[in-house]
Amino acid sequence: MEIELIENYNFPELAQLRKYIVFPASKDLVAKGIDYHLKGVYKNPRREVNLLFAVKRKKSKTKSKYTDRWTWIEYKKNPKEDGWIYGPAHFIAFERSDDFIIINRKVLLEFLVSPKCRVRWDMPFVKSPKEAKYKIYANPRTGSKISQILSKDIMKLEGVQIWKKNGNG
Description:
Elements: H1 11-17, E1 21-24, H2 27-31, E2 36-42, E3 47-56, H3 65-69, E4 70-78, E5 81-82, E6 91-95, E7 99-104, H4 105-112, E8 137-138, E9 145-150, H5 151-155, E10 161-164
Parallel strand pairs: 3-6
Antiparallel strand pairs: 1-2, 2-3, 4-5, 4-9, 6-7, 7-10, 8-9
């Protein structure tokens, strides 16, 4: 019996497999929520592109479909700073157990403020993060405002890509 080893690539390695040149973000960009600066060539017309990525890493070490099912959105980092959804990133990469969901930040933001999205800003804030499914949790200690939406809602948006950690797809 032969055992097939499947390597799990991290985000920079997956970007390199897609022919991007990957740079860690500068200190200034990291402070604004950017993790990587990617350079590549756009297919048609052939021109150089510079992309800023914010990578939202999977918090739980367990390979759980539940943690993959829900995605956190940060609206406010603290009372004085907007969350990463309003930041300078061109793209957001949400890490899951087996892949990364890649979405244009502006497309995601447009969805979040549209009537199509079910996040309930018209209701009182919930008291705990576990209640934040399509509702806003305001952290009394940090002043952050976050909610959770289904990953499948993001996957329906225009231009979304799935980068498999095994390098296929």
